[in-house]
Amino acid sequence: MSNFVSVASDNGVAVVTIDNPPVNALSFHVRKPLYEALAALRDDPAAKAIVIACAGRTFVAGADITEFGKPLEQPELRAIIALLETIAKPTVAAIHGTALGGGLELALGCHFRVTDHGAKLGLPEVKLGLLPGGGGTVRLPRLVGAAKALGMIVSGTPISASEAKTASLVDSVFDGDLLAQTVRFASEMASRGEAFVPVRDRNNRLAETDLAAFDAQAADLARKARGLEAPLACAEAVRNAITLPFDAALAAERQLFLKLVSGDQSRAQRHLFFAEREAAKIPGKDVQKRKIARVGIIGAGTMGGGIAMAFANGGFPVTLLETSAEPLQRGLATIEKNYAVSVSRGSLTEEAKQKRLGLFKASTDYADLADCDLIVEAVFEDMAVKKEVFGKVDGVARPGAILATNTSYLDVNEIAASTSRPRDMLGLHFFSPANIMKLLEIVRAEKTAPDALATVTDLARRIGKVPVVVGVCHGFVGNRMLAARGAENEFLLLEGAAPSEVDKAFTDFGWPMGPFQMGDLAGLDISWRNRKARGLTAAIADTLCEQGRFGQKTGRGWYRYDSGAREPVADPDVEALIRTKAADLGIAQRNIGPDEILERTLYPLVNEGAKILEEGIAARASDIDVVWVNGYGFPIGKGGPMFWAGLQGAAKIVERLEYWHRQTGRPVFEPAPALRRFAVTGSWESVPNG
Ligand code: 3H9
Q1: pTM above 0.90, yes or no
Q2: Given 36, 67, 73, 105, the catalytic residue
Q3: Is 88 exposed, middle or buried (0-12, 13-18, 19+ CB in 10 A)?
Q4: What are the chain's domains?
């Protein structure tokens, strides 16, 4: 008995309850008493069956991630599962909430798994750069077959109780009181007097495996792994389960796990796991949150429509406002079409689509925003227009309603000051498509009230977003750093790199695409308009835009896109234009390798992040990582720019920035004091924040 594991008897069935809030992770202080309890029950004639259950909101959600990277204290999870498999009396896992990772592996050590209807089961280790290291890769295929197990383990996505039942992962899905039903089930199994076969010895499903089909499936998954080691290790381990005897496959799984857990990729992904949760914690979060029952969205264009969908998807009634009937109808039609696409792809049921559409109220009258608790403006990115909109909102919104501007760059303090209620005002920078992209920069203006901030941070998580609180500056965290990352792009071209070479250096690093391909996708006219508004120029990009080359949408940009294709093709006209511009400017061209490309783009990115940190625009370096991984495609296996800076060695980054600063004199290369400090201490926490 301990505070974390207790044993009770119910009609001769021993119920072992794990109680380790918040998610019943298998920390050492759980493993030890759990092992001891199971060892005692194995030999206890009074216990005719054993049920493993959990207190609180969930079954075991996995190993304790905070213990990875430290010396492991015995007994480890594998020993507990091995012990379970020596127990002759029936053992049953009673699963509610989520059985994830080591939690599901523990359940796989039992003879039976039963759940309630809401349970979810999965092996999400791959998302932490790992593979299941408690026998999951060897036992799961024995129950659900190798193909299904491979899909579950490589995707890391949990499945529902009903899917698990269909796949033979669980034996029963119960209505009503899970524990009472499980005890009855265990008792019934015990009364059969049978010798139940542990999962490790159930080989029938594996024997049916079509190895060639399996290899084809694994090869397909490997192609999508984009430099990540864990998905490949997962596939290798499941293959071992098919081709090797149980114990050999289990030992091989262990070796793969140990390699991954000590590697940089898993460290990076574990860092991101905690960083995302940390980012949602803001000072003053204990304040009483405001009630949000209805959300108003102003503007039914691409952004407004996407934001409206994001809230409707989270179950919130939405009032969608436009200036007149025509754009309103167009916006609604797009929303309906987007939902229809989800239905046709099978990711949404027709019923769910109708339910979500039923949450929309369309209006062209600001007075209809009076019952909204949060009002998000998503109109044209122009200060005068935004102020006009908030002038009208100010007149109709109820007292205490939170007012949010969806701006990517504008000064939220200035917008707030134009209203009579700056305490209720903040920025919500959604990323496009807003119904899909996870990142949400929440802009805290000077006068934003702590309870307004806490309310939207909480709300963001409820609609499936990853919120990061940022301060006011041009471009906030993400776009400001993006500008620093791109500052050298044109110089690289003028000095001799082709757009495709720059893009390739990026994709080889692990980005989904490079900056020029990205520009073509987003539309070159957008940054052109931004530059013009700020009195800035870009020698090559401006000329491309003057030629009507706006990117994919015009079939021409940095690349050519033949007959509507999305695949970029290098364009000799662009290369000729670059050469001409270089000659005009007297810049000699030379070969530029990928290392130089990355140095001149990613080191300024880190440097700008350091400035953002010292200015207090971001509260933590890890918040910056969360922004870049979730909003801009920074490779997860590298943990975000600030984490990666540590892997690279900040001293090296400072040295190379100094070099490029001497060469070019450009401010983007001037190392920030915060970066210099990080280079000395090795910790971003040593940097004064704001
Ligand atoms: C594994 O099992 C390896 C094995 O195969 C092999 C071993 C040999 N450990 O997400 P939330 C904390 S790898 C430690 O906000 P929700 C979390 O940091 C593991 N801490 O709640 C947060 O702390 P705080 C495989 C954990 O309701 C608090 O719990 N399992 C762990 O939105 C609440 O978390 C996974 O990868 C953990 N395992 O979501 C599952 N899990 O309050 C990871 C959570 O201080 N966990 N915490 O910020 C999850 O996916 C979600 O937490 C879960 C709940 C869905 C369970």
Answers
A1: yes
A2: 105
A3: exposed
A4: 5-262 (3.90.226.10), 295-476 (3.40.50.720), 496-500+508-584 (1.10.1040.50), 594-686 (1.10.1040.10)
